[in-house]
Amino acid sequence: MYSQRSPTAVLLFSLPTVLDAARKGLTGQRAGQNQAFWETLHQLTTAKVRAAGLPCVFSATVVPAPDYAASFGEQLQTAVSATLAQGYDRVIVIGNDCPDLRVADLRVAADALAQGQLPIGYDRRGGVFLLGLDRRFLSAESASGSQSFGTLPWQTDQLGTALADYLSHTFGGVVCLSAVRADWNERADLRAGDWLRGAFAGLAHRLWSRVVPISKTFTSPDFPFSSYSGRTYSLRAPPVTA
Protein backbone atom coordinates (compact mmCIF):
# COMPACT_ATOMS: atom_id res chain seq x y z
CA MET A 1 0.00 0.00 0.00
CA TYR A 2 1.39 3.40 -0.97
CA SER A 3 1.07 6.40 1.31
CA GLN A 4 0.84 10.13 0.71
CA ARG A 5 4.51 10.27 1.80
CA SER A 6 5.48 8.11 -1.14
CA PRO A 7 8.63 9.22 -2.99
CA THR A 8 6.63 8.62 -6.17
CA ALA A 9 4.10 11.21 -7.32
CA VAL A 10 1.60 11.14 -10.16
CA LEU A 11 1.82 14.21 -12.37
CA LEU A 12 -1.56 14.94 -13.96
CA PHE A 13 -0.45 16.82 -17.04
CA SER A 14 -3.55 18.54 -18.36
CA LEU A 15 -5.34 21.75 -19.07
CA PRO A 16 -7.72 23.26 -16.50
CA THR A 17 -11.13 21.76 -17.22
CA VAL A 18 -12.54 25.10 -18.39
CA LEU A 19 -9.85 25.27 -21.08
CA ASP A 20 -10.29 21.61 -21.97
CA ALA A 21 -13.98 22.30 -22.51
CA ALA A 22 -13.27 25.34 -24.67
CA ARG A 23 -10.62 23.68 -26.82
CA LYS A 24 -11.84 20.08 -26.99
CA GLY A 25 -15.60 19.90 -27.40
CA LEU A 26 -15.71 16.11 -27.46
CA THR A 27 -19.37 15.83 -26.50
CA GLY A 28 -20.66 18.21 -29.16
CA GLN A 29 -22.88 19.83 -26.54
CA ARG A 30 -23.13 23.36 -25.15
CA ALA A 31 -20.10 24.82 -23.37
CA GLY A 32 -21.49 24.25 -19.87
CA GLN A 33 -22.34 20.62 -20.59
CA ASN A 34 -18.96 20.02 -22.20
CA GLN A 35 -17.20 21.50 -19.18
CA ALA A 36 -19.20 19.19 -16.90
CA PHE A 37 -17.95 16.29 -19.02
CA TRP A 38 -14.31 17.31 -18.54
CA GLU A 39 -14.79 17.96 -14.84
CA THR A 40 -16.21 14.47 -14.40
CA LEU A 41 -13.37 12.91 -16.40
CA HIS A 42 -10.89 14.83 -14.24
CA GLN A 43 -12.62 13.56 -11.09
CA LEU A 44 -12.53 9.99 -12.36
CA THR A 45 -8.80 10.24 -13.07
CA THR A 46 -7.90 11.74 -9.70
CA ALA A 47 -10.08 9.18 -7.90
CA LYS A 48 -7.99 6.41 -9.44
CA VAL A 49 -4.76 8.13 -8.37
CA ARG A 50 -6.06 8.40 -4.80
CA ALA A 51 -7.09 4.73 -4.86
CA ALA A 52 -3.53 3.82 -5.85
CA GLY A 53 -2.36 5.60 -2.69
CA LEU A 54 -0.12 8.00 -4.58
CA PRO A 55 0.08 11.79 -4.23
CA CYS A 56 -1.31 13.65 -7.23
CA VAL A 57 0.44 16.76 -8.53
CA PHE A 58 -1.36 18.98 -11.03
CA SER A 59 0.68 20.55 -13.81
CA ALA A 60 -1.18 23.85 -13.46
CA THR A 61 -0.02 23.97 -9.82
CA VAL A 62 3.66 23.18 -10.29
CA VAL A 63 3.86 25.40 -13.40
CA PRO A 64 1.29 28.15 -12.67
CA ALA A 65 2.52 30.35 -15.55
CA PRO A 66 3.54 27.99 -18.36
CA ASP A 67 5.37 29.22 -21.42
CA TYR A 68 2.59 28.95 -23.99
CA ALA A 69 5.07 29.51 -26.81
CA ALA A 70 6.97 26.36 -25.82
CA SER A 71 6.36 23.07 -27.58
CA PHE A 72 4.36 20.26 -26.03
CA GLY A 73 7.51 18.34 -25.13
CA GLU A 74 9.16 21.40 -23.60
CA GLN A 75 6.08 22.09 -21.48
CA LEU A 76 6.03 18.49 -20.27
CA GLN A 77 9.74 18.62 -19.51
CA THR A 78 9.21 21.76 -17.41
CA ALA A 79 6.32 20.18 -15.49
CA VAL A 80 8.27 16.97 -14.74
CA SER A 81 11.31 18.94 -13.57
CA ALA A 82 9.12 21.14 -11.36
CA THR A 83 7.51 18.07 -9.79
CA LEU A 84 10.89 16.49 -9.03
CA ALA A 85 12.01 19.83 -7.59
CA GLN A 86 9.26 19.48 -4.97
CA GLY A 87 11.25 16.63 -3.45
CA TYR A 88 9.79 13.59 -5.18
CA ASP A 89 12.24 10.99 -6.43
CA ARG A 90 9.99 9.51 -9.10
CA VAL A 91 7.13 10.77 -11.29
CA ILE A 92 4.38 8.93 -13.15
CA VAL A 93 2.95 11.15 -15.88
CA ILE A 94 -0.65 10.70 -17.02
CA GLY A 95 -3.30 12.83 -18.70
CA ASN A 96 -6.95 13.32 -17.81
CA ASP A 97 -8.26 11.89 -21.08
CA CYS A 98 -7.94 8.14 -20.53
CA PRO A 99 -10.99 6.74 -18.69
CA ASP A 100 -9.56 3.29 -19.41
CA LEU A 101 -6.68 3.98 -16.98
CA ARG A 102 -6.63 1.43 -14.14
CA VAL A 103 -5.40 1.69 -10.56
CA ALA A 104 -3.31 -1.39 -11.31
CA ASP A 105 -1.51 0.53 -14.09
CA LEU A 106 -0.39 3.15 -11.58
CA ARG A 107 0.73 0.56 -9.04
CA VAL A 108 2.68 -1.45 -11.61
CA ALA A 109 4.35 1.76 -12.78
CA ALA A 110 5.22 2.77 -9.21
CA ASP A 111 6.71 -0.66 -8.51
CA ALA A 112 8.80 -0.48 -11.69
CA LEU A 113 10.15 2.94 -10.74
CA ALA A 114 11.02 1.70 -7.24
CA GLN A 115 13.15 -0.98 -8.91
CA GLY A 116 14.98 1.54 -11.08
CA GLN A 117 13.03 0.85 -14.28
CA LEU A 118 11.13 3.45 -16.29
CA PRO A 119 7.58 2.34 -17.22
CA ILE A 120 5.75 3.15 -20.43
CA GLY A 121 2.07 2.47 -21.08
CA TYR A 122 1.20 2.40 -24.78
CA ASP A 123 -2.10 3.59 -26.16
CA ARG A 124 -3.83 1.89 -29.05
CA ARG A 125 -2.52 4.16 -31.79
CA GLY A 126 1.18 4.35 -31.10
CA GLY A 127 1.29 7.01 -28.39
CA VAL A 128 1.43 6.57 -24.62
CA PHE A 129 -1.11 6.99 -21.85
CA LEU A 130 1.49 6.76 -19.06
CA LEU A 131 5.22 7.20 -18.58
CA GLY A 132 7.51 7.11 -15.57
CA LEU A 133 10.65 9.11 -14.84
CA ASP A 134 13.00 9.56 -11.90
CA ARG A 135 15.53 12.11 -10.69
CA ARG A 136 17.99 11.08 -13.41
CA PHE A 137 15.70 13.06 -15.71
CA LEU A 138 17.05 16.31 -14.28
CA SER A 139 20.40 15.68 -15.94
CA ALA A 140 19.03 13.86 -18.99
CA GLU A 141 19.77 16.56 -21.54
CA SER A 142 23.52 16.37 -20.99
CA ALA A 143 23.47 12.59 -21.39
CA SER A 144 21.05 12.20 -24.25
CA GLY A 145 23.26 13.19 -27.16
CA SER A 146 21.52 14.71 -30.17
CA GLN A 147 18.00 13.54 -29.19
CA SER A 148 16.26 15.37 -26.36
CA PHE A 149 13.04 14.73 -24.47
CA GLY A 150 11.48 17.96 -25.67
CA THR A 151 12.03 17.17 -29.35
CA LEU A 152 10.49 13.70 -29.35
CA PRO A 153 7.58 13.31 -31.81
CA TRP A 154 4.89 14.18 -29.28
CA GLN A 155 1.27 13.99 -30.41
CA THR A 156 2.07 11.55 -33.22
CA ASP A 157 1.75 7.80 -33.70
CA GLN A 158 5.56 7.57 -33.58
CA LEU A 159 5.79 8.69 -29.97
CA GLY A 160 5.69 5.30 -28.24
CA THR A 161 8.63 3.85 -30.16
CA ALA A 162 10.65 7.07 -30.05
CA LEU A 163 10.08 7.53 -26.32
CA ALA A 164 11.12 3.93 -25.54
CA ASP A 165 14.28 4.34 -27.63
CA TYR A 166 15.12 7.65 -25.96
CA LEU A 167 14.62 6.33 -22.42
CA SER A 168 16.56 3.14 -23.14
CA HIS A 169 19.46 5.06 -24.66
CA THR A 170 19.55 7.69 -21.93
CA PHE A 171 18.74 5.72 -18.79
CA GLY A 172 18.85 2.01 -19.53
CA GLY A 173 16.06 -0.06 -18.02
CA VAL A 174 12.63 0.48 -19.55
CA VAL A 175 9.58 -1.70 -18.88
CA CYS A 176 6.41 -1.65 -20.99
CA LEU A 177 3.09 -2.18 -19.25
CA SER A 178 1.28 -5.23 -20.56
CA ALA A 179 -1.99 -3.32 -20.87
CA VAL A 180 -2.66 -1.11 -23.90
CA ARG A 181 -5.22 1.60 -23.19
CA ALA A 182 -7.27 4.05 -25.24
CA ASP A 183 -7.44 7.76 -24.53
CA TRP A 184 -10.02 10.18 -25.87
CA ASN A 185 -8.62 12.65 -28.38
CA GLU A 186 -11.54 13.00 -30.78
CA ARG A 187 -15.29 12.37 -30.70
CA ALA A 188 -14.69 9.14 -32.61
CA ASP A 189 -12.77 7.83 -29.57
CA LEU A 190 -15.73 8.04 -27.18
CA ARG A 191 -16.82 4.55 -26.29
CA ALA A 192 -18.06 2.53 -23.35
CA GLY A 193 -16.26 -0.53 -22.02
CA ASP A 194 -14.95 -2.23 -18.90
CA TRP A 195 -14.03 1.13 -17.39
CA LEU A 196 -17.76 1.60 -16.65
CA ARG A 197 -17.64 -1.24 -14.14
CA GLY A 198 -15.99 -1.74 -10.77
CA ALA A 199 -15.18 0.58 -7.90
CA PHE A 200 -15.54 3.75 -9.99
CA ALA A 201 -18.82 2.83 -11.67
CA GLY A 202 -20.67 5.81 -10.17
CA LEU A 203 -18.30 8.40 -11.60
CA ALA A 204 -17.85 6.41 -14.80
CA HIS A 205 -21.58 6.25 -15.49
CA ARG A 206 -21.94 9.94 -14.69
CA LEU A 207 -19.26 10.62 -17.30
CA TRP A 208 -20.88 8.36 -19.89
CA SER A 209 -24.28 9.92 -19.28
CA ARG A 210 -22.82 13.18 -20.58
CA VAL A 211 -21.90 11.39 -23.82
CA VAL A 212 -24.85 9.05 -24.47
CA PRO A 213 -27.48 11.77 -25.16
CA ILE A 214 -25.66 12.71 -28.37
CA SER A 215 -25.49 9.09 -29.55
CA LYS A 216 -28.95 7.64 -30.00
CA THR A 217 -27.63 4.73 -32.06
CA PHE A 218 -25.37 3.27 -29.36
CA THR A 219 -25.91 -0.49 -29.26
CA SER A 220 -22.71 -2.10 -27.95
CA PRO A 221 -20.32 -1.28 -25.07
CA ASP A 222 -17.45 -1.61 -27.55
CA PHE A 223 -19.02 0.40 -30.36
CA PRO A 224 -17.43 3.85 -30.89
CA PHE A 225 -19.44 7.04 -30.72
CA SER A 226 -19.00 7.60 -34.45
CA SER A 227 -17.15 5.99 -37.31
CA TYR A 228 -13.57 6.92 -38.06
CA SER A 229 -14.43 7.46 -41.75
CA GLY A 230 -10.85 6.71 -42.70
CA ARG A 231 -9.47 9.71 -40.83
CA THR A 232 -6.14 9.55 -39.00
CA TYR A 233 -6.12 11.39 -35.70
CA SER A 234 -2.92 12.70 -34.15
CA LEU A 235 -2.22 11.56 -30.62
CA ARG A 236 -1.82 13.85 -27.63
CA ALA A 237 -0.33 11.70 -24.93
CA PRO A 238 -0.49 13.23 -22.37
CA PRO A 239 -2.66 16.36 -22.91
CA VAL A 240 -1.20 19.78 -23.53
CA THR A 241 -0.87 22.35 -20.77
CA ALA A 242 -1.61 25.37 -22.88
How would you characterize this protein structure?
35% of the residues lie in helices and 12% in strands. With 242 residues, it is of the alpha/beta class. The protein is globular, with a radius of gyration of 17 Å.
Quick rundown:
With 242 residues, this protein is α/β, with parallel strands linked by helices. 35% of the residues lie in helices and 12% in strands.
What features would you highlight for this structure?
alpha/beta; Spore Coat Polysaccharide Biosynthesis Protein SpsA, Chain A; six-stranded mixed beta sheet; 6 strands; disordered C terminus
State the CATH superfamily name: Spore Coat Polysaccharide Biosynthesis Protein SpsA, Chain A
Overall average pLDDT = 80
Question: Percent of residues in beta strands?
Answer: 5-15%
Reported CATH architecture: Alpha-Beta Complex
The radius of gyration is 17 Å
Topology of helices and strands:
Blueprint: E1 8-12, H1 17-23, H2 31-51, E2 56-58, H3 59-62, H4 72-85, E3 90-94, H5 103-114, E4 118-122, E5 128-134, H6 140-143, H7 159-171, E6 174-176, H8 201-209
Parallel strand pairs: 1-2, 1-3, 4-6
Antiparallel strand pairs: 3-5, 4-5
Helix pairs in contact: 1-2, 2-8
